[in-house]
Amino acid sequence: MNTLSNPELTLQVSPHGAELCSIVRNGREYLWQADPAYWKRHSPVLFPIVGNVWQSTYLHKGKAYTMSQHGFARDMDFELTHASADELRYRLTDTAETRGKYPFPFMLEIGYRLRGRCIDVLWQVTNPSTEADLHFQIGAHPAFHLPEHAPADPRRGFLGFDRTEGLNYIRIAEKGCVDPDTHYPLELTDGLLPLDTHTFDIDTFILEDGQVHEVTLCATDKHAVLAVRFDAPVLGLWSPPGKDAPFVCIEPWYGRCDRARYSGEYKDRDHVQHLAPGETFESCYTIEIME
What we know:
By secondary structure, the protein is mainly β. The chain has a single domain, classed as Distorted Sandwich (Beta-galactosidase, Chain A, domain 5), CATH 2.70.98.10. About 0% of the residues lie in helices and about 45% in strands. The protein contains 1 helix and 27 strands. It has one helix at about 95-100, and strands spanning about 1-5, 10-15, 20-25, 30, 45, 55-60, 65, 80-85, 85-95, 105-115, 120-125, 135, 140, 145, 155-160, 170, 170-175, 175-180, 185, 190-195, 205, 215-220, 225-230, 235-240, 245-255, 275, 280-290. The strands form 7 sheets. The protein has a 9-stranded antiparallel sheet, with no helix packed on it. Strands 5, 13, 14, 21, 24 and 25 form a 6-stranded antiparallel sheet that branches. β6 and β7 form a beta hairpin. The longest helix has 6 residues, at about 95-100. It is globular, with a radius of gyration of 19 Å.
């Protein structure tokens, strides 16, 4: 593990997957600690896809490739390229193994910057090719401990948003893929989404088209515990269905899973990002601990 620390927070990051594994303030852990009874990860980086491709297979120039859920970056070792008092940066580049399932040269860089009670998570994707475009998706999957988790009490807290009217979401429909044409209203109570033991029976809430850019996790008394801020156009909210897991994932995405039964080319999938030769994509999201 690599560690960043200041008077407010201490972070730990693993070079395996460049994964944020711990956020501690005043002795309290805010990031889920990967108990495999519920979910074995902390905050994986999703690349070069978010979610599933239909039947785990996609087409590039008519050739079929196999890709597992959320891509391969989360399961690979990154190189630590920078370490200072307030920032860590990691790098992953394509290999013969990755080109067998994703036929593109790429350079993926993940960074973590500590600012008081804030953590900036930095993403940079570069297309090193001199000939071909790079097509990709990238997303976050941080899991945060719920403020209260008492088996005798079904309440689990609330989620707040920077917009409280007109929100809608789509759902997983079949084999991990969505029906993007059916929208459901996100029903809030006093401007908040109540969390209870059945909130995630539907699996994932997927909010598209940049509907929100900030999500706040609140305790049952509605005080703010932490916030996630982002510019990404898609947001996923998830906790394992039917498990009453003691965490919730707040996930900014540049991408999402396929629409059910999609059979087109990879580059034409919904929410795919495109880089011309030599171009670089950069983005960032921020976690703020508010207690």
